[in-house]
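quick one, two chains, predict together pls
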Amino acid sequence: MLHIVNKSPTQARSLESCLRVALPGQAVLLIEDGVYGATTGSSSEAQVRAAAGKVKFYALKPDLEARGMATRALDGVTLVDYGGFVDLVAEHGPSNSWL
Amino acid sequence: MKKFMFVNRKAPYGTIYALESLEVVLITATFDQDVSLVFMDDGVYELAKGQQTKDIGIKNFSPSYRALEGYDVEKLYVDADSLTARGLSEKDLLVPVEVLDSAQMAELMAQQDVVLSF
């Protein structure tokens, strides 16, 4: 399963809820305002770091760049472009969008 | 002249709120009103330096905050706790602002004639 989170961790609890139910080996892709969750100093940094051993984190690079956050991406979060987004969807079975 | 405050609490690009707020701010300034802008919660992300929107197909409107001065909109206030909670500081922002603590922010809001939230 591919979890997709598009809300900022300080605006909504989507990422928190997602990580509570995500199973080991699943993937979490952060897009749109969700990418703030993958930046240093964000309220969810510790949570993301803690979960990084369990799930694999990805963030959409164009969305990080748009928000001036590209240089603040956390280590251990893989940045993908739109083609990479498509590959993730194709590889991980059902997508779960946390709207 | 009335005192107008615009409270910006959303990140840019994910929703249209930040851009719409900016448009209304410019209109209000055109009518020679006393305009203050507040950035709190995710609204502080609107002022982050280094925004590059080429690959998401949305206009980067962040330079417009630098142009506000030309419309005599010079009162930009940022909530200290919101910056800290996001690992940001004043030097990460693209315009000069005044950083306020909660008590100062509360007082400033209480002085307004009109408060519009985005």
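Chain A has a mean pLDDT of 95.
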